[in-house]
Amino acid sequence: MKPIISIQDVTYTYPRVKHPTIRQINLDIYPGEKILIAGPSGSGKSTLARCINGLIPHSYKGELQGAVMIDGKPITEMPIVEISEKVGTILQDPEGQFIGLSVAEDVAFGLENREVPQREMEVQVKAALERVGMVQYMDGSPQELSGGEKQKVALAGILTIDPEVLLLDEPLANLDPVSGLQMMELMERIHKQAGKTVIIVEHRIEDVIAYGVDRIVLMVDGAIVADLPAAQMLSSGLLKEAGIRHPLYLEALHQVGCSYTADDLPLRVDEVDVEETAPIVSRWLSNGENEASIEAASGHDRNTDETLPIISFHGVHFGYEPHVQVLSEVSFAIQPGERVALLGHNGAGKSTLSQLMLGMYQPTKGSIAINGKNASGMNIAERGRQIGYVMQNPNHMLSQDTVLAEILLGPKHSGFSQEEIGRSVDHALAICDLAGYRNWPISALSHGQKKRLTIASVLAMNPKLLLLDEPTAGQDYRHYREMMAFIDGLSKQGIALVMVTHDMHLAMEYTDRALVLSKGRIVADTSTMALLANEDRLTGSQLRPSSLYELGKRLALKQPDRLIRRYIAEERKGSAQYEEA
Q1: Chain segment 22-33, per-residue pLDDT in tens
Q2: I want to staple 135 with a disulfide (CB 3.0 to 4.6 A). Which of 45, 129, 266, 480 is the partner?
Q3: How many CB atoms lie within 10 A of CB 270?
Q4: What CATH code would you report for 5-243?
Q5: Superfamily of domain 311-546
Q6: What is the pTM of this model?
Q7: Where are the domains of the chain?
Q8: How far is the C-alpha of 202 from the C-alpha of 49, rounded, in Å?
């Protein structure tokens, strides 16, 4: 069988960059395969994806050596339109793909370019939306959809073109756990039913592997270092060496003392051998510390002193239109040094609540106080000196040409002395692992690197409360640990952390309190550990229990949550040792 995509000795260097981002890449992908491309942030995954879909060399004008072939034809000899009919791309930020004012118009865009007759176009658009479960949104605006719904609309638009290859670049980065699960289920259905070749670039490997892949291609420092079946890759340890975290349930089984070869490694929780594993886990739990010591190891104590909260909401309501409430009766307070996870499904109101914290909107009812003072008279700049905000999409924040210029922007316009500017900029660059990129053009950075840059630019301003929207999206495990170790340390200095996240492991390891939004209301304000051990509350809020909880149920443990609690305690001990090292 001939490969549908063949990459031969490919090296690529971005403009104004001294060294190649990818080098000597050789990869053949065959019709009907499902491939996962994994690697640490900055390893060249996104650049390789741009070579596959023709953005390199047609949109990025750097130096390309070697050959990329689609169906035996060099992409340098194919116009970008022809490539797009062979390789359909779904970006991690689907908003960048929207053209039409309505969902139907957007899905029809490719058909309009092909001059498909109106009646036939309507039939194809409806059929594509039915395949992704979005036909009821045909007349709505794509901008009003949740993250998961936007991904489905982008996929529907690609399906109307019917490409042979589907390329998904970090498709789960901005999705809540339930939406991510639905996306992977949808892709698996299309892969099986239509026989499409599927290439997935993703850090959340647990969700991808659970639905099966033929191979995992591992990239490190711009090169392919391994290309193996999933079980062989996981059992080899190469992913962990590269800074990629294994599925959470496998991490727990390793911690317990279970070991696997490529032949018996379970790629899903429901493949775990209960008869063999349950006694090992039960002994591990019974030989461990008691419940009180596990709780004591769970992190910082919640701040209960009499200091004024940095920010507090009192009966806040908000709607973008009269009589259409997005948030209702929201009340909470954040104390100095608290570590809080703001959780909820896509569309629950998390982004709106964040915008109210920043002063971008004012409550339609109720009040917000900052340091005990009513915030209604404060402008955005005044709030910005108290609250540092890192957006979910780094492209919405970045405005300068180079990494250094971006980090300098805030301190230069906020009265910092030259000494303070130099110290804060160097520190932010080092912490976010960007020192070697200080003179790079921002356009050459990967999504994960851009994310770290936005965090660095905010940290340089020394805020009192750090509001982070999906801080670890697109980050490999090494950068995740390094960045969160630093961010977590800020809370010990009295800086409050509020993390808007879909990453339940981040919430589990780095927050002590969880605020859960559902349909615009706070439905839970409790300890993070208590929330993650409560399956009913999670599913009722359209969140997914972690694979740790699923493992506990699979093994028929009387208290599945004890596995979570013990694992968290051991992980946090490991984190402390990691930070000291």
Answers
A1: 999 999 999 999
A2: 129
A3: 11
A4: 3.40.50.300
A5: P-loop containing nucleotide triphosphate hydrolases (3.40.50.300)
A6: 0.78
A7: 5-243, 245-287+547-581, 311-546
A8: 11
